[in-house]
């Protein structure tokens, strides 16, 4: 599964797999998964990009950009609703 890249964008459709791996080598901060809980205060959809921005649990500003088409392909809203409903009902 492709993961969104935080604060760095490049078109994966134009880059071969080995080129993507080279990009990650250049960005050591992205070599490990980092869990961030974001308090979203901004959403923007423009042309083929989506943007969510907000603050993390430490109050630091964080912006995440997605390719709109890929986001719609990967985002399963029904699954999210089911999981959230289960969580709320169990509380």
For the structure shown, list the relevant keywords.
disordered N terminus, globular, three-stranded antiparallel β-sheet, 91 residues, 34% helix, 3 helices, single chain, alpha+beta
Verbal overview:
- By secondary structure, the chain is an alpha+beta fold.
- It has one domain.
- The chain is about 35% helix and about 25% strand.
- It is built from 3 helices and 3 strands.
- It has a 3-stranded antiparallel β-sheet.
- The longest helix has 14 residues.
- It is globular, with a radius of gyration of 15 Å.
- The two termini are about 30 Å apart.
Helix/strand-derived category reads alpha+beta
Main beta-sheet strand count, sense and barrel state: 3 strands, antiparallel
Q: Helicity level, as a percent range?
A: 25-40%
Report the strand count. Answer: 3
What gap, in angstroms, lies between the N and C termini?
Answer: 31 Å
How many helices? The count is: 3
Q: What is the 3D form?
A: globular
Indicate the proportion of strand residues: 15-25%
Low-pLDDT residue spans: 1-15
CA radius of gyration is 15 Å
Number of structurally distinct domains: 1
How do the strands line up in the largest sheet? Answer: 1-2-3
Write a short abstract of this structure.
34% of the residues lie in helices and 24% in strands. The chain is built from 3 helices and 3 strands.
Topology summary:
Elements: H1 17-26, E1 39-46, E2 49-55, E3 61-67, H2 68-74, H3 77-90
Antiparallel strand pairs: 1-2, 2-3
């Amino acid at each position: 599964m492709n993961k969104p890249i935080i604060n760095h964008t490049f078109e994966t459709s134009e880059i071969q797999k080995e080129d993507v791996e080279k990009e990650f080598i250049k960005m050591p901060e992205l070599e490990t998964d980092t869990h961030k809980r974001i308090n979203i205060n901004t959403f923007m959809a423009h042309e083929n990009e989506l943007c969510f921005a907000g603050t993390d649990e430490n109050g630091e500003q964080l912006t995440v950009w997605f390719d709109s088409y890929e986001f719609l392909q990967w985002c399963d809203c029904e699954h999210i609703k089911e999981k959230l409903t289960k969580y709320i009902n169990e509380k």
